[in-house]
Amino acid sequence: MTSPDSPVVHLSNARLDRGGRTILRDIDLSVPRGSITAVLGPSGSGKSTLLAALTGELPLAAGTVEVFGKPVPRGTRHLLEMRKGIGVLLQGNGLLTDLSVGENVALPLRTHTKLPAVLVERIVNFKLNAVGLLAAADAYPRELSGGMARRVALARALALDPPLMIYDEPLTGLDPIASGVIMSLIQRLNDTLGLTSVIVTHHVHETLPIADQAVVIANGGIVFSGTPAELEATTDPLVLQFLRGQPDGPIAFDATPRTEAA
Ligand SMILES: Nc1ncnc2c1ncn2[C@@H]1O[C@H](COP(=O)(O)OP(=O)(O)OP(=O)(O)O)[C@@H](O)[C@H]1O
Ligand SMILES: [Mg+2]
């Protein structure tokens, strides 16, 4: 891959358009290797759109995006190759309901590798153990709590040992205890497996304690970039409005509907 001190993700002067509209502009972001970056912002500010640029799902309208030291490719074959290095945990978990927990975690290994069944089983058990769910290997998604299902999805995202993990709203629908479990798991996995993580969320207070850097997006761009401590000390009215969850203030209310399915 690249030299150890080059950033794992680097966006420079990036502009992201959707449905003919500019969602984000002038985006400069560097995600250092081994770090956890929190991308915060109100609903509709463009957090998921930013992630779509990292996975190559949404090509930039302007500027550059590099992942693992190389420009995110546009051709399908190269894109698929790059994506094997990115573990993505989506909001909806995306577990297949007619497959057991173990089979769900095995799916990326069966799809993308030619590993023999015994090895697949060993890797699946290792990943399930990492999220504390080895005992649930034979259960079906409908038998799991929301927190457990999220952990299975996490194990599946880790199946191919991706060096970069991307989490889109990992806490949605979870109670405070399950949220705490997921957050400490994300941190522990990042440290023990030597990963780099980008967490997109509006759960500021749960996420800042495990983040090395924080970025706030609002009004079409980055309005804050710094350490969690710097964010907590901010006096910027726009950032404060978001942190305090106030409806009135400099953040424009997102009132434009999507023009096509997400
Ligand atoms: N496929 C799409 N086509 C057109 N517009 C889109 C599409 N996806 C998102 N948008 C628009 O882009 C803007 C940002 O959406 P995005 O989903 O990135 O926000 P978000 O910060 O992830 O919000 P949330 O916190 O609710 O998940 C919104 O105004 C949305 O309507
Ligand atoms: Mg989103």
TrEMBL record:
Keywords: ATP-binding, Nucleotide-binding, Transport. InterPro entries: AAA+_ATPase, ABC_transporter-like_ATP-bd, ABC_transporter-like_CS, P-loop_NTPase. GO terms for molecular function: ATP binding. Residues 9-244 form the ABC transporter domain. Pfam families: ABC_tran. Signal peptide: none annotated. The keyword Calcium does not apply. The keyword Nucleotide-binding applies. This is Phospholipid/cholesterol/gamma-HCH transport system ATP-binding protein. It comes from Pseudoxanthomonas sacheonensis.
